[in-house]
Structure formats: structure tokens, C-alpha cells
């Protein structure tokens, strides 16, 4: 799976959407450039909306958004990163279920997204 990894880090929405439309999983480690850390929640939300499951470092602030093991994976060690990547890259059912639950959570908790998609109920 290592050969299929693409970095998402420039903050360009169109570029990020294009990249996310072509990947199965988004991995968000803590970036070396700490300014990019502010960008991570937006990328994670975009991935959720596009039904791409997220694997994130547990320390980068997404633990408030991701329910570990349900709608994404939070990692605390290199061993957990490897296991999470392997799980979601090889288990299509788990990948699809996490993506679905993450998108549903986003739509349920954010009225603005429902309005944007035309659902006002």
C-alpha cells in the first residue's frame, strides 16, 4: 500500500478534492510544518464528506471528531499506524463502513452541510 500514498498538504480545495476522489484512505500524521496542523481538520471533514475514511495521529486534535475504530482510526505509535494502514487498505468492508459512518456523522451534526445538499429535514 505504500506505493499508493499521496501527500495532501497545500490547502488548495480543488486539488484536495481531486486527490481525495482518487484515494481509498486518508492518513493524517502530525505534519513537520506545524502551520499545516491547522489545516488538518478541514481536510478530515472534506474526506468525510467524500466518504474517504481517515487515519489520524491521536495527538493532532481530530480525536474530538473521530470515534476511534468506528468512523476512523486514531494512532499513537508506529505499530498502530502500520496496523491501521494495513486494515483499511486490505479490508474493503471496514473501509466502506468507516467512510459511511463518518459521512453520516458529518451530515447529522452539521446543519449547513444538509442545507447545501438540499436536505432541510
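Sequence proposed for the structure above (121 residues):
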Amino acid at each position: 500500500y505504500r506505493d499508493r500514498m499521496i501527500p495532501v498538504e497545500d490547502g488548495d480545495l480543488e486539488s484536495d478534492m481531486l486527490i481525495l476522489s482518487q484515494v481509498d484512505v486518508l492518513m493524517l500524521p502530525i505534519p513537520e510544518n506545524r502551520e499545516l496542523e491547522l489545516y488538518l481538520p478541514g481536510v478530515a471533514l472534506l474526506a468525510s464528506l467524500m466518504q474517504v475514511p481517515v487515519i489520524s495521529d491521536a495527538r493532532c486534535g481530530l480525536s474530538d471528531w473521530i470515534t476511534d475504530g468506528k468512523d476512523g482510526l486514531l494512532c499513537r505509535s508506529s505499530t498502530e499506524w502500520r496496523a491501521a494502514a494495513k486494515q483499511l487498505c486490505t479490508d474493503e468492508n471496514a473501509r466502506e463502513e468507516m467512510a459511511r459512518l463518518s459521512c453520516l456523522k458529518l451530515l447529522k451534526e452539521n446543519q449547513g452541510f444538509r442545507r447545501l445538499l438540499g436536505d432541510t429535514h
